[in-house]
Amino acid sequence: MPCALATGAAELPEAAAGARIAAIQADPKPYAVEIMHEAGFDDGQWACLESLWIGESDWRWDATNPSSGAYGIPQSLPA
Predict the structure, then answer these.
(1) Are 2 and 35 in contact (CB under 8 A)?
(2) Which residue ranges of the chain lie beneath pLDDT 50?
(3) Which residues is 76 bridged to in the sheet?
(4) pLDDT tens digits along 14-24
(5) Cα separation of 15 and 66, whole Å?
(6) 45 with 60: CB under 8 angstroms?
(7) What are phi and psi of 71, to 5 degrees?
(8) Could you tell me the CA-to-CA distances from 54 to 9, 15, 26, 37, 51 in Å, in that order?
(9) Which residues have CB under 8 Å from 63's CB, separation 6+?
């Protein structure tokens, strides 16, 4: 199954895409597992990733670090 974030929402009508994005934002962990598997990692890596992202953002998709500009669940730095 293709990544829900990469393909699912973009191929849906606007209202359905919005609903799918809202569902991902409400519970991002299942989608993170899906992406982790697509990247070639197995379930043995999940505990490490989950712990890291709890520390970075507590799984809040809208988390922002005002001092660095890092954002999102993994606290990515802007380009």
Answers:
(1) no
(2) 1-4, 6-7
(3) 71
(4) 888 889 899 99
(5) 32
(6) no
(7) -145, 165
(8) 25, 30, 15, 19, 5
(9) 56, 57, 71, 72, 73, 75
